[in-house]
Write a structure and sequence with these properties.
Low-confidence stretches: 1-6
Shape: elongated
Number of helices: 45
Largest sheet: 5 strands, mixed
Number of strands: 10
Amino acid sequence: MTAPGRRSSTFTRLLRHGFTDPSAAERLLDSPELTAVRSDPVLLEALGGTADPDLALHGLVRLLEAQSAPTDRRELVDTLIAAKPLRDRLLGVLGASAALADHLVRHPGDWRELVTYEPRDLHPGVEEFERGLAEADDPVTLRVAYRRCLLSIAARDVCATTDVAQTAAELADLATATLRAALAIARAAAPGDAALCRLAVIAMGKCGGHELNYVSDVDVIFVAEAAEGAEEDKALRAATKLASHMMRVCSETTVEGSIWPVDANLRPEGRNGPLVRTLSSHLAYYQRWAKTWEFQALLKARPVAGDLELGEEYVAAVSPLVWQAAERENFVADVQKMRRRVVENIPAAELDRELKLGPGGLRDVEFAVQLLQLVHGRADAGLRSGTTLDALQALATGGYVGRADAVQLDEAYRFLRSLEHRIQLYRLRRTHLVPEGEADQRRLGRSLGLRTEPVTELNREWRRHTGVVRRLHEKLFYRPLLDAVAQLAPGEARLSPEAARERLIALGYADPAAALRHLEALASGVTRKAAIQRTLLPVLLGWFADSADPDAGLLNFRKVSDALGKTPWYLRLLRDEGAAAQNLARVLSAGRLAPDLLMRAPEAVALLGDGDGGGLGPRTRAHLEQEILAAVGRADDAESGVRAARGVRRRELFRTSAADIVSSYGTEAQPAEPDQGALVDRVGGAVSDLTAATLAGTLRAVVRAGWGETLPTRFAIIGMGRFGGHELGYGSDADVVFVHEPREGVSEQEAATAANKVVSEMRRLLQIPSADPPLLIDADLRPEGKSGPLVRTLKSYEAYYRRWSLGWESQALLRAEPVAGDEDLGRRFVELIAPLRYPSGGLDDDAVREIRRLKARMESERMPRGADPKLHTKLGPGGLSDVEWTVQLLQLRHGAEQPGLRTTRTRGALTAAREAELLSEDHASTLDEAWVLATRVRNAVMLVRGRAGDTFPSDARELAAVGRYLGYGPGHVGDMLDGYRRTMRRARSVVDELFYADR
């Protein structure tokens, strides 16, 4: 007897053998069913070897209690102690699967299925499983027979008699036998229907790939033909009935539960299409309508039941189409987009536990392997396996994947599939989520052989393997391209030049030969630079391929690398700072403007980092002006000073364009900016501030060179148009007017001469050909336009506006804002023009009619010949001009009594008009959306083409690049243009109501 307060020796032994509740285990061992063997060390040792000793013991007691006679109970106990194969298999199953324990309790004689241990039982195939299901003639008996077969598969699995690939193959073979049995039941129930048709069942997905899970939908496609002498319509109706019945036999819940759902949604048109089609109907669909993912799915098509001859005809007919899929436009992008969409649909709370679909999960391996198969399988029939691990091995053997990468992926995939099997085996439920409970994780860890610290070790191994997959699944596609040109691993099979060419074409490269030359130049050699670039390039190539112009991205990277490759900080920046490499890839492949700016001063790459020396955030106007004025102050002459100012401008234009591109595309760490208006405001504000600072610096340089510290006349620069509205784009000129006021004691003539000389010299210096982009000053909005004097005194402006000012000039002054020069003079100019742009009492009818007339004339006269008006961002219906003139009319009419309208910014005035209830919220939103979109398109055109434009590019690649900048994926240029027209059409209807209606 055990003394009070002391543990029994049995309690201690149970703890040592892995029981978590020794007290409950002691009670179970004391049950009458186990009296004879409760102290048998063989039994305790066997229980301790299971995944969950407590669960195994509880299941064993339940099974013994379920035996119908004492002799049966004694037979089970005696066999359990005497026969190690049964002991290991039975207890192994009971310790891993509560669901199979329930089956054994309901069918207590089925334990005998685990007694036999002959070689022929180790790896059964379809034939053996068909024998096991042979006596099933209805859904209930089929379920019982199915679970009996499943019991033997699970036993071999948990005892490690079979590995994970063999287990998955056995499960697929059992599914094949089950589908055949279910179809036989359906045929027996409707012999008339069976006689009318030939019906083939094609397995898809994991069943087709011979790699099924314990619990998974079984994906199928049905193909049928009329039996000899039967009409096709009747045959198809009969085949549909048989197929539907077969699916119900497997899927419906009975007293024995269900087997698994049979899913036919991979068929043409999915659930909206007919369940059964003829072979010719299948082919017609795949030839005309199928999407890329449908050909990817067909990789695993395999006839399994019904008319196998017809099934083979189906596979033979669709196979050529599968291997042509890689030639489709945007093939790689489509496959990758499908993968991203899967990840995006995972609930955030489940993402970290998602074993199949999450980042670094099973689907990453499968997608990567299938992508490579589709690219190279047309030329190499040895790659055409539906089984992931077999295909991965074939890819490595053929040199399409590096051997070391293939080995790591194989290990990771096997571990993740084993973990998935154990998770599903416990309850026989379809799930891919790693459980959060410690007890569940302990059982899983022990089932995988992790016995020391099962929970800790399980999580460590799981994270390690998902990390390997995340690191390798895209590298898998790009690394062999480097091996092909750089001979990184002598003696290893490498991609042939033709295979490398195929892969690059699939990635979207228009000139694969040039791409291979660039890769060779970047990756060859034994220098530190080449070594780091070999590490970076597989990732960079993936990012380039995600752009509209991968060729340009790779070429530009080579240029930057040639310029900076010997600079220590450059490669360290790309290697060590997480955002820099992806930011660079985005910038180099998004168009011409940003790379051109970068090539003129490659050291600006440093801005792309996320460390102290970088950062893409916009700088304030004060900071810009301070830097430029300091640079001008250090210069020896005006030309040197303005050259320094233009250098700062070039760098800051690169910063702004790079930030715009990165925010528009998004990165792995930071998704794309969803607020398009914020992007437009950021660019407009940054470029406008930069232009103002550049003009301030140029003015200082010119004044210092000609007059020292003080000009004979006070001088101010007034921003107009988009400049005054803080809405400049990358290609905008600086619209300005110049105002001066002679200093005391200076004659009007001397002051005017000095002011005109300043303007002339500023314009000259800002346009001198150099590596920096010119800044064009446009003063055409001055009084009298091009016919009027370039510079006027404040008094001259006052006299002109009092006597001669026209309506269009008042409208132009709505956007006037001082940007450089004498602040007091600028302020007095603004005070001077206030009554003109915000007239007391608003506008009379004649003035409104004149504005409308001018608008109509501008639309008809300035629209370029041959341009599509509906796609012209400035003058087209609903475009920039429509929105701006509508807003400006509201300002002219109501600015005097509504202070909020007294702003130079279009969007700000639109918001103020809405708040003043001068237009509805819907109308304001419609106009704002159109204005933002048109501005974004103009910015995109400049970024992509390197020169300004008001219409979408005609070149297909440039048009696609505009689409990517606007958030449209590959192949969606048509959607972009349709969306643009739709937005502008809505805006024009609002303009017609607000601008042209008499109100």
